[in-house]
Design goal:
The chain contains 22 helices and no strands. It is mainly α.
Length: 481
């Protein structure tokens, strides 16, 4: 064998053995991972991170129509939750064209459901209604989902059809009984599918749609009985669905004058949301542990590849092997150093979480979080006073730490005060961060959509931002969220 060929073969082996695993993954394995990460980011209300992962998936999937449609569908969903309706519609049209050409029934159903949602959200006045258009999309989506045996899409299509019929009665006084009954029938179909196949996300959606339907029919007592019955069917660990029920019951009890029950339901809502957040924290720590273990396995695999490479190169050309091994040793050192740094960082995070914020009652971290959330309405003197109260009885935090926390919160409160946000504006910012649209915020605060949009424009001006995403990012930096 010619020396040039030996060197080429050796270099090829080196590249093959030392390339990171992710570089060799094809789109079929990389795109699902990126879309799963995007879904996790959406669940955590981190829409910028979610969009970044979805766009990367779209870039990787450019040569595969199915993966491209799935990536575009994810982007559409993120845009809808971030109130970027125009961007969502544009991407939905692109995904729809590809799905129709390729005959992807399930994926096309998802896109048509998104288009129906956008039509539903357009219902902010009698003149802007696109309910009939939305019903066409949702009905076609339902037929496609049935053909593809896609139960989740069937349930969601039924919900959207019911919601669009609710919209058709939105400006009627009194409501049309036939339209109202039709809306209820479609909600029943969607709920039956979600219950039969145990789909928690759609069960929660059913609660929201059903609440609108009961409210439109002025059937508060029936709504209370229905939601109390639903409670009995929930799994104990389904804190998110239970908190959604509590939230609706607070309003219903208040409307019917049952104020003591409303207070109890509110306390239950707070408790279940705390339990849900704890679940998410546990999942995050588990994910960190899993990622670390994967990195450790990859490092072990790389060491095995290095050993094999040394043997092969020694047989082919000793001189060339020495040069290449030196280079790889340098790379391995940097890789090991980085992995060790990650390992040390992980251990420090776990140590901080498990040790540095403990006190006899176990609620010190929560008390700091509560104080942080209220700094916009407190004076610097009041913040100082509360920080001093925090350290009383704590076992593992001293006055220096309390003073530092106080300095941070006072600085944060001053920056919020300088902007001049009202209590109502801060409330709208926080509801926007939960992923609520202007229409949903208006419903929760008993305001008109125009009033909510007016508040948002004032907020944009005060904060110097141009959209909801930038508003949430800046509010997070200020400590409002």
């Amino acid at each position: 064998m010619h020396l040039k060929h030996i060197k080429l073969f050796a270099v090829t082996l080196l590249f093959s053995a030392c390339s990171p695993v992710s570089d060799r993954n094809n789109a079929g394995t990389e795109v699902p991972v990126l879309l799963a990460e995007a879904a996790q980011d959406v669940s955590a209300q981190q829409f910028d991170n979610a969009m970044e992962n979805a766009l990367r998936a779209l870039d990787v999937s450019a040569g595969d129509p199915l993966l491209k449609v799935q990536s575009l569908s994810t982007i559409v969903g993120i845009d809808i939750m971030a109130s970027r309706d125009a961007d969502a519609w544009e991407k939905a049209l692109e995904a729809e064209a590809i799905a129709r050409d390729a005959g992807f029934k399930k994926e096309l159903a998802e896109i048509l459901i998104s288009k129906a949602k956008l039509c539903s959200y357009a219902e902010i006045s009698p003149e802007t209604g696109r309910n009939d258009e939305g019903l066409e999309y949702a009905t076609e989506a339902l037929h496609l989902a049935e053909e593809a045996d896609a139960v989740e899409q069937q349930s969601e299509a039924c919900y959207i059809i019911g919601s669009l019929y609710i919209n058709k009665n939105r400006w009627s006084d009194p409501v049309d009984p036939d339209i109202y009954r039709t809306a209820g029938e479609w909600l029943d179909k969607g709920q039956a599918l979600a219950d039969t196949y145990d789909i928690p996300r759609l069960k929660r959606n059913g609660i929201l749609f059903r609440s609108r339907w009961f409210q439109q029919g002025d059937r508060n007592e029936e709504a209370i009985a229905y939601f109390e019955k639903v409670f009995a069917t929930l799994k104990e660990s389904d804190y998110l669905t239970a908190s959604a029920l509590d939230d609706r019951l607070v309003r219903l009890y208040t409307r019917t004058g049952q104020y003591e029950k409303a207070l109890d339901a509110h306390d239950d809502y707070v408790f279940r949301m705390q339990k849900y957040l704890q679940q998410k924290q546990d999942e995050t720590l588990q994910e960190m542990q899993t990622r670390f273990e994967v990195q450790e396995k990859e490092r072990a695999l790389e060491r095995g590849r290095y050993r094999t490479l040394i043997l092969l190169l020694a047989l082919l050309l000793a001189a060339t092997a020495i040069v290449l091994l030196v280079r790889q040793a340098q790379k391995a050192h940097r890789r090991n150093t980085e992995l060790q740094r990650i390992s040390n960082s992980k251990e420090q995070i776990i140590e901080i979480l498990s040790k540095d914020l403990k006190n006899p009652t176990g609620d010190f971290a929560k008390r700091i979080e509560t104080l942080s959330a209220s700094v916009a309405s407190l004076s610097p003197e009041e913040i100082r006073k509360r920080c001093e109260e925090l350290i009383q009885g704590a076992q593992e935090i001293n006055a220096d730490v309390a003073r530092y926390v106080g300095d941070v919160l006072i600085d944060r409160s001053k920056r919020i005060a300088d902007i001049g946000l009202s209590a109502r504006e801060i409330q709208i910012i926080r509801l926007s961060a939960e992923g609520l649209t202007a229409a949903q915020i208006a419903e929760r605060l008993f305001l008109s959509v125009n009033t909510v949009n007016t508040h948002r424009q004032r907020i944009y001006g005060k904060m110097g931002v141009g959209n909801v995403t930038d508003m949430i990012r800046k509010a997070t930096g200020l400590g409002i969220l």
